[in-house]
Amino acid sequence: MRWELPIKEEDLALLVLERRRGGPKKYLVRVRRERFHTHRGFVDLGDLIGAEWGTSTKTSRGDRVLVLPPTAAEVIEKFPRKTQIAYPKDIAFLLMRADVKPGDVVVEGGTGSGALAFALSRAVGGSGRVVTYEIDDRFLKLAKKNLERLGATNVEFKLGDITSDVVEEEVDSFFIDIGDPWNALSSAWRALKPGRPFAALIPSCEQIPKLVNAAREEGFGLIEVHEILDREYDVDERRTRPSARMIGHTAFLVVGRKMLRD
Amino acid sequence: MRWELPIKEEDLALLVLERRRGGPKKYLVRVRRERFHTHRGFVDLGDLIGAEWGTSTKTSRGDRVLVLPPTAAEVIEKFPRKTQIAYPKDIAFLLMRADVKPGDVVVEGGTGSGALAFALSRAVGGSGRVVTYEIDDRFLKLAKKNLERLGATNVEFKLGDITSDVVEEEVDSFFIDIGDPWNALSSAWRALKPGRPFAALIPSCEQIPKLVNAAREEGFGLIEVHEILDREYDVDERRTRPSARMIGHTAFLVVGRKMLRD
Amino acid sequence: MRWELPIKEEDLALLVLERRRGGPKKYLVRVRRERFHTHRGFVDLGDLIGAEWGTSTKTSRGDRVLVLPPTAAEVIEKFPRKTQIAYPKDIAFLLMRADVKPGDVVVEGGTGSGALAFALSRAVGGSGRVVTYEIDDRFLKLAKKNLERLGATNVEFKLGDITSDVVEEEVDSFFIDIGDPWNALSSAWRALKPGRPFAALIPSCEQIPKLVNAAREEGFGLIEVHEILDREYDVDERRTRPSARMIGHTAFLVVGRKMLRD
Amino acid sequence: MRWELPIKEEDLALLVLERRRGGPKKYLVRVRRERFHTHRGFVDLGDLIGAEWGTSTKTSRGDRVLVLPPTAAEVIEKFPRKTQIAYPKDIAFLLMRADVKPGDVVVEGGTGSGALAFALSRAVGGSGRVVTYEIDDRFLKLAKKNLERLGATNVEFKLGDITSDVVEEEVDSFFIDIGDPWNALSSAWRALKPGRPFAALIPSCEQIPKLVNAAREEGFGLIEVHEILDREYDVDERRTRPSARMIGHTAFLVVGRKMLRD
Questions:
Q1: If you average pLDDT over every residue of chain B, what do you get?
Q2: Chain B nearest CA to A185, separation (Å)
Q3: ipTM of the complex
Q4: What secondary structure does DSSP assign to chain B, as a single string?
Q5: Min CA distance, A205 vs chain C (Å)?
Q6: Residue D262 has pLDDT above 80, yes or no
Q7: pLDDT class for A81, splitting at 50, 70, 90?
Q8: List of chain A residues whose C-beta atoms are within 8 Å of the C-beta of residue B91
Q9: What is the C-alpha to C-alpha distance for residues D200 and C142, in angstroms, rounded to an integer?
Q10: Phi, psi at residue D138, to the nearest 5°?
Q11: Residue A113 above 50 pLDDT?
């Protein structure tokens, strides 16, 4: 995931097709000697090999296409998936609130498609480590494949249940992204260093009090529930305004800290 | 900023005083053999030395206080400052959209109190580097002192103008937090690797089109404007609801990518 | 509540004290021959008698004060109250979604301080009628006094329980503002004209599914749940931006329509 | 617009087709002896004549359809239009902030398709009056036709420019919905009763300071800028959550009050 100049075969590239309405259309592609078809004509990817990042090219129909090294957020948005994945805006907030930094050891589960594991892998870096648990073997294999292709080498994939099978101790933070997050809280409490945070993503209102109350009972403190709304603005030559459409809801974000039990 | 067990003298600690209304009250303190006064009685900080993180103690009036290792977000919220500083929710979003990761070299300015530099320092880690520019010597000294106390060793402080004095090249991302951000765009373009992002924080509506149009002219592509709203939820024994008060606005966040010039 | 020129003794007036920060300060006063004290000096209200609306005067300290005929929203914001009252932004939305218009007959309860009854009274006008139910005699008396002072003559106050005592039939809409709104749904169904709406205000997340599911079972259709967020913007000579603080939550608003039972 | 039982030929009816995803689909129809085609089969509208409001019927494919008397909000959402029209959430807020009530005389322009005029017509009732100005004859004719069909008899349509041609005086409120609203402020000031409000809808950020500063110069006070966000919630048998998609922006809403000039 480090991009060297110039563009090489097998690099991941973000193609950006600008549109008059509705914002740009983004495609995440693997640079190979083949055509990539957009709804506005195709791009010959082989032509990009040897070019510099930040170049612009044209589709066969003559529309301008930007060629960019993808950011982690762009990779996550295009993650090969079988289920709903966490949004970059939510992951970003949780990385901050759960205080993830280079060198950290982090436990995470369920793995799902691996998008959150990828974000954690990037944030802890080569000196850190991510251990991810998933009970469904097919998901685990998909996630493993996804992360290998992205060059993530600091992630350990474990077939197991994050609510019962976690063996790690003294970890820096603990991420929960399963349907019954309250069942993973005792795992989290055991695995975490004292005072350190768990973080969970939940989609529904009903889950908020259930998770918060379970966290209190489990011995977590400073429990907070957040929801992140991302408003985009459109700027054209004549005027600026908030985008007409926005994402109304993705997930509620819950964090808390391991307290010593009396 | 790595917390070893147990609590040592001179450690930074977050004291959390739970309240019936309005959420918990947080204090960031340096652990020394002295009293710390809250509005609900004092805590004898010396008593914490040797205790474990995640312990709870009591104020002289008998109110419960949690003792936690502060997260980066909590440190930023309590940053010693002379001016308004960036909020963790905004920094978190920009770290993600500007794709900051361990090992990166990042340029930033104005330094201000150093809160953003601190967040960048944490995100790039020991193998990365942050260069921060500030034209006001007093701010630069304050920021330097703030970051030294936090143990940040990968930040280089430069007395200079980010709109004209930047000498770095091939940097991974470029953060702009000054009153006239459009004037720093040519610096950003020169300093950045091709295809890589600049990120800016601006408080006012008028600055949005001014910055976006200047960025287009300077040769940036995939320019986006975001605003992050953080809704908190209160959960008590009986009910869950969004907090009655919320932060209505902090900053508009603008990112864009360096394109090759024709 | 119709303001004749000029200002007369006993008129309600809105005094607006402009401030450099935090928006203007508003006071709702009864014009009498007495002094009114603000935090920036006093205003001699007697001096306003005979003046025109829209005039400006000065406090004893020399600060400018606007003198305005209060709108319904401003009256509601300053309603004499013993409990939390509905916000104008929420009332406005419900008046629209519940389709209240001049001439309508509307049932409402609990009366509380009468703020919602006042808004309904205004919206249905002299040719309409509002019947409001309240089980607490003290609230009912307070509300009656509040509305008499405001000149509302089309409101009927009933000491009784909106969940069981409603005798009206063929009403145009039915407003529920009590702690257990689901218990008022069968009253609503019996009282309403076919196809017509009920509207309820609820503060907590837990109440949403409870009310919605009860409404479905009771025979209501087209049930919707809304929440209205009001962002204010500050404009000074130099710049425009969303206000730093906003109301994060007041109430969830639920509406539905009476369907024929099979 | 008063619905008498039972459903009569030529009545306006709202057909609601419930869907598993994305909320119900609503159709506004005129009840005639003809078929109405939905994407899930047709409804024989003639069969509804003589039925009661609040009944449910089935499409030819067997899907359930609710038959409801449309509210003003539903009529507005389906307004025959040639341009963007104001949203009910915004109209509702402005009716409240501009203090519109039965019996009021209100000036409005540009008429556009007449949606706002319709809402004002409903709010002022038979004892009130709405005067609407439009410079484009085709719009004026369309609006006239739209409002006649809705039975609005208290609206006066004037071919003219709201920035220069308004002759009314002592009006209760003044609504501005044109591209250059600042040019209508002197009209508004002349037409309004002292202390009474103007209300304007503007789509773009750039228009906010332009309109606010012009209003200050024109002699308006207590100028406020609002934006109304409407969050909807989805409730199914299992869970409650904010809708995945929401309207991100419609208009900024500006109100102010006529002050006496010195």
A1: 95
A2: 16
A3: 0.96
A4: --PPSS--TT-EEEEEE--SSSS-EEEEEE--SSEEEEBTEEEEGGGGTTPPTT-EEE-TT--EEEEEPPPHHHHHHT---SS----HHHHHHHHHHTT--TT-EEEEE--TTSHHHHHHHHHH-TTSEEEEEES-HHHHHHHHHHHHHTT--SEEEEES-TTT-----SBSEEEE-SS-GGGGHHHHHHHBPTTPEEEEEE--TTHHHHHHHHHHHHTEEEEEEEEEEEEEEEE-SS-EEE-SEEE----EEEEEEEPPP-
A5: 7
A6: no
A7: confident
A8: 96
A9: 36
A10: -65, -40
A11: yes
pLDDT at B180 over 90: yes
Residue D64 pLDDT class (50, 70, 90 cuts): very high
Candidates C128, C260, C166, C104; CA nearest to D3 is C104
- For chains C and D, count residue pairs whose Cβ atoms are closer than 8 Å: 226
Q: Which chains touch A (3 or more CB pairs under 8 A)?
A: B, C, D
Judging contacts by C-beta atoms under 8 Å, the chain C residues touching residue B240 are 204-206
Which chains have at least 3 CB atom pairs separated by less than 8 Å from chain C? A, B, D
Please report residues of B whose CB lies closer than 8 A to that of C233. Answer: 205
* D101·C72 Cβ contact <8 A: yes
Residue C99 pLDDT exceeds 70: yes
Which residues of chain C are within 8 Å of residue A209 when distances are taken between CB atoms? 205-206
Integer angstrom CA distances of residue A152 from A123, A129, A157, B64: 11, 10, 12, 43
Q: At what angle do helices D137-149 and D115-124 cross, to 10 degrees?
A: 40
Q: Is residue B22 very low, low, confident or very high in pLDDT (cuts 50, 70, 90)? A: low
Per-residue pLDDT tens for C167-178?
999 999 999 999
pLDDT score, position D82: 78
Candidates D53, D205, D258; nearest CB to C194: D53
- In A, minimum Cα distance to C227 occurs at A248
SS3 call for D18: coil
Spatial distance between the Cα atoms of D31 and A171, rounded to a whole number of angstroms: 67
- Note whether B205 contacts C248, CB cutoff 8 Å: no
Structure tokens at C210: 């409870």
Whole-number pLDDT of residue A52: 94
Residue of A1, A14, A68, A255 to mutate, interface with B, max B Cβ within 10 Å: A68
| Best to test chain D binding among B202, B206, B239 (most D CBs inside 10 Å) | B206
pTM of this structure: 0.96
Q: What would the pLDDT profile of C101-159 be if each residue is shown by its tens digit?
A: 999 999 999 999 999 999 999 999 999 999 999 999 999 999 999 999 999 999 999 99
Position with higher pLDDT, C5 vs D63: D63
Sign of torsion over alpha carbons D146, D149, D155, D159 = positive
**Which chains sit next to B, with 3 or more Cβ pairs under 8 A?**
A, C, D
| Contact yes or no for B209 and A71 at CB 8 A | no
Dihedral sign of CA atoms A165, A167, A170, A174 in order? negative
Answer yes or no: is pLDDT of D3 > 70.
Answer: no
Q: How far apart are CA A237 and CA A240, in angstroms?
A: 9
What would the two tokens of residue C5 be? 């020129």
Set of chain D residues whose Cβ sits within 8 Å of the Cβ of B208: 205
Model confidence at B3: pLDDT above 60:
no
Judged against a pLDDT cut of 60, whether residue D247 lies above it is answered with yes
Do A208 and C209 count as a contact with CB atoms less than 8 A apart? Answer: no
Q: What is the pLDDT of residue A259?
A: 96
Q: Which residues contact B14 (CB under 8 A, 6 or more apart)?
A: B26, B27, B28, B29, B66, B67, B68, B69, B70, B71, B74
Q: How far is Cα C39 from Cα B75, in angstroms, rounded to an integer?
A: 37
Q: CB within 8 A of A3, min separation 6: which ones?
A: A11, A53, A69, B193, B195
The verdict on a CB contact (< 8 Å) between B241 and C231 is no
